[in-house]
Amino acid sequence: MAKTKITTELTKSSKKKAVSSEDKVKELYAKKEAELKDLPGIWFAVHSYAGHENQVMQALHARIRTQEVEDEIFEIITPTEKAEVTRAGKTKVVEKVRIPGFILVRMVGNDEEGWDRAWSTVRQTPGVTGFLGQADQPIPLTLQEVLNMVMPGLLQEFGEDERKTDEEITKSRVGSTSFSEGEPVRVVGGPFEGNEATVSSIDQERHRVVVMVSIFGRETPVDLDFTQVVKMDV
Fold first, then answer.
1. Given this model, what pLDDT does residue 58 score?
2. For the structural domain made of 174-234, what CATH number should be given?
3. Which fold, 36-150?
4. What's the DSSP call for residue 13?
5. How do beta strands 184-187 and 229-231 pair?
6. Distance (Å, whole) CA 2 – CA 136
7. Smallest Cα–Cα separation from 198: which of 150, 170, 231?
8. pLDDT at site 128
9. What backbone phi and psi angles, to 5 degrees, belong to 191?
10. Whole-model pTM?
11. Alpha-carbon distance 31 to 29, whole Å?
């Protein structure tokens, strides 16, 4: 009887942890969404030389000051995330650019005063090769696209304890899920929810899968747990 009672209590505790962790993710997502909505300007994706995103961002900051367009260009970010890298048998955590060859710029829209100055400042920055879209008609990013870029890095700020909790929750909710490399799937959880993707690699032990999601026309790897993806026929 005692064993049954303990098992029941552990199950209830696991469910509470699951609800708590998922609620925190939703709360963080909603907070960031509200924050972005209140910001002035429009977000654009700017092409840069891959591997030189940070240098281009610094150069653009400098040009904004020298060209005195602080009232037209409000923010520049290079979305990053932490990743484990193994070299010479040693594993360490490094920060890497999420979308190589792109930086995000929040600035006035192309129908607003100051657009020409803002556009030329960005376009003439060394290392910038253009805007996403046509040369003279850049395509603004949607709020969802910006969230997709910045949220994965923010979610990593939960800390080690939260990540462990998420892994425990996942393991309690799924058993042996059979995905295969190259298989098409649909993302049903997290910032990339609703996107179709392709399985790149599977980690059965940690119940996680890396899928390739198309972002700005480029295939980008995204690390998810099994509960965040489903087969296309589901």
1. 94
2. 2.30.30.30
3. Alpha-Beta Plaits (3.30.70)
4. H
5. antiparallel
6. 72
7. 231
8. 94
9. -60, -25
10. 0.65
11. 5
